[in-house]
């Protein structure tokens, strides 16, 4: 391997992460302190060719292998200059910054043999789409610390159209890959770049802590099947802010494992803060909870979101056999536009990984607050369809004004749910006006109610 030369000019741009642990209200208020990376190399120094045709997997792997030796010297940056850099999947390393210059595009190969097959995640027990293994993601992190993926609006383009066709025609042999996946990692920052055309998910942190995602754009075409933007999965201390995401399926989906596998693994998604996001989802939900939630989802704060042109805006999904819980969720200051269903909570959504699930593992859904919301051109305001054996409780609605379009026949649908509402228009079903629940809601609805849960 050629001896790389440090790109001194880039020093100011490449940084190492430290999350300031001091107490504050919501993960996004924790300051990220970025220390400069003392070393930088360009992918060109490893023989990469940015012509969109040459496969650069070995160049990325060799560059990362070389940069491993800087881990105990403050880490290093891998600089990707303008060009179209075709690659199969590769791994990152700790104390690394992957920097995509303006005009730099990392292109995912459309040849499945360039994507390794890996074991399913233990909290899922199998691939999500097919039993057995799954394709490894394009960019991977396993048991890493202090990793930054950033740039001057460079792009990671999964060229997912082939995967969407294989999915739709049932010709996949394994579950589709994602663009970026971190497993069992901490102190991760993804910022200032664009993600396009993911085969399935764009960013999938699973079993991770301290994940910050700032100022990214994520796009896949409306018809791309089950493409999802960001999926925090069995992860904690996550911030997603200033992002614009437009997807075929869900824009952001919080998950935590599937039925008996997720229950056994038992790692929740907790302490997630999402703010100042623009989300669009053609056939799913702008913001989804579940349906895989068997490890539990709690202490989630969402504020200042614009949710538009979507099938649903906010959806809670679960089913019997799933176990787990979704609780202590506060969603406020939303602006909804052109959405079929503003709020959904569905207690029989999704399928099971196999027939070994426990049908008596009932999920719990409670302490959900939705407040300060305006919606225009909405067909269904809310559909809360709970589970008879485990009704949804303490659903707290406040200061919501939804303008329903003429396509609507019913604005609210409720069963096996109880909750409390104040200043909600149109008037919700009586199940959501139960003054018996008001005491638990009132503490959640107070201006400082969030400190009660976060
Ligand atoms: C990538 O990391 C995985 C562990 O997640 C490992 O099994 C695999 O061998 C690594 N691949 C390369 C090329 O280093
Ligand atoms: C967001 O990222 C773009 C490049 O993608 C950059 O031009 C812009 O300044 C960034 N904004 C912030 C607030 O970081
Ligand atoms: C970033 O790049 C994408 C795709 O190349 C482009 O659509 C978008 O306008 C760019 N954003 C900024 C802030 O330059
Ligand atoms: C699935 O496997 C079959 C048989 O090996 C192969 O012909 C086909 O190309 C594979 N499909 C994909 C999408 O890799
Ligand atoms: C993102 O871009 C903005 C504007 O150029 C810059 O201030 C910020 O430091 C960048 N973020 C990271 C993590 O590089
Ligand atoms: C209302 O929203 C629907 C999508 O739910 C959209 O098709 C329609 O064009 C919107 N109407 C107006 C007047 O924007
Ligand atoms: C009600 O919500 C709107 C935004 O939808 C907000 O502007 C207003 O301040 C809220 N009112 C109260 C009393 O919180
Ligand atoms: C409400 O959700 C249930 C369960 O998904 C569904 O069967 C029903 O059609 C929905 N109702 C409306 C009006 O959307
Ligand atoms: C409220 O609680 C009282 C006493 O626990 C009960 O009798 C009543 O039916 C409840 N009302 C509703 C609407 O659930």
Automatic annotation (TrEMBL):
Gene that this sequence comes from: LOC110421992
Claim: Nuclease is one of the keywords in the record: no
Family as reported in the entry's similarity comment: Belongs to the glycosyl hydrolase 28 family.
InterPro entries, per the entry: GH28_Enzymes, Glyco_hydro_28, Pectin_lyas_fold, Pectin_lyase_fold/virulence
Matches recorded under PANTHER family: PECTIN LYASE-LIKE SUPERFAMILY PROTEIN, PECTIN LYASE-RELATED
UniProt keyword list: Glycosidase, Hydrolase, Signal
Protein name listed in UniProt: Probable polygalacturonase isoform X1
SUPFAM superfamilies, per the entry: Pectin lyase-like (SSF51126)
A GO MF label: polygalacturonase activity
GO biological process, one term: carbohydrate metabolic process
Signal peptide stretch: 1-21
Taxonomy, superkingdom: Eukaryota
